[in-house]
Design brief:
about 400 residues, six-stranded parallel beta sheet, Rossmann fold, 13 helices, alpha/beta
Amino acid sequence: MHLPFIRSVKDIDLRNQRVLIRADLNVPIKDGLVTSDARIVASLATIRLALNAGASVVVMSHLGRPIEGQYADQYSLAPVAQRLAQLLDREVPLLAQPEDCPAIEFGEIGLLENVRFLMGEKSNSAELSQRLSDQCDVFVMDAFGTAHRAHASTHGVAELAAAACAGLLLDAELKAFQHTLSAPQKPMVAIIGGAKVSTKLEVLGSLAGIADRIIVGGGIANTFIAAAGYEIGKSLYEPELLGVAKNIAGRVKIPIPVDVMVGRAFDEAATAIVKNIDDVAADEMIMDIGPVTARAWAETLLDAQTIMWNGPLGVFEFDQFGEGTRVLAQAIADSSAYSIAGGGDTLAAVDKYCVTDGISYISTGGGAFLELVEGKVLPAVEMLRLRSV
């Protein structure tokens, strides 16, 4: 991965400038309150930089998947505005329309309502892109989690704004990926979990040429286990991709577990049973790696110099099937390797097992994380590159 030159917000004088920041504030909300503010906290550095410079600051983001152009209470950013105000210790008014942005004075901040309430956001319409760009002197793209989408609030506005640059978070994300993918210190171990090989086929193919070892988990692992000739019972897997799994396993070392945790139903109350890999019965489902495998794989991580983690090893939402993920999460935290973790389930596991401080870099991206690993160009990043020439 070669990191192109992209102008940073640090390189622009923001005094008396109208600054529009695209952040990723797509956070979980329950009963009108933010239940995890990690993404909001991650966006604070850029916001504070602009406020301290005396800029008029408006932050925008999407939340959930509302019907485009239609307001819906459950997708309102009002709870986010409330939490942002608490974190900044200042008022953060919620702005209904882009044209409300001029109400924000220099040195103050506002939050634009969910950009997906605006028609033309996902289609990257020229009209909405112009409406947004008209509200700022400087556009700051700081939403790595949406950088793989060419939307009006991530791409179109960057093309039309008087000046466009990367925020501190986006800059840090790109540098972390360059550190991991361009010339990683060896040995490099990638941990890739998930339900289906098909959703991470390009990721696995790309990593096969970079990593020394790929540890696979979840339904992905079941496909590789079946490809190795083992009985997997009723486990989730993709029989049509057995050949693909064999091909990838022929290019990079992908260990097969020697023992697994099985259950007879995908249920929180299911009993967890330890089985040798060649003893899985026809009515059982593989739900996690076993304790012997977890210890062995954890030991290999201690020797790694670079670790990339995307996806749990098992059904960690059920505690009895979460030990594999917990043991490896702790091993990553204990390792002296440079480690990067990303993806929604991965971040949930990081929080659940309290290993945040042991991870070198925690990415805020899901889809963007995977597309960078695949070697794809992120549309929003490419537009910033073009504007930085």
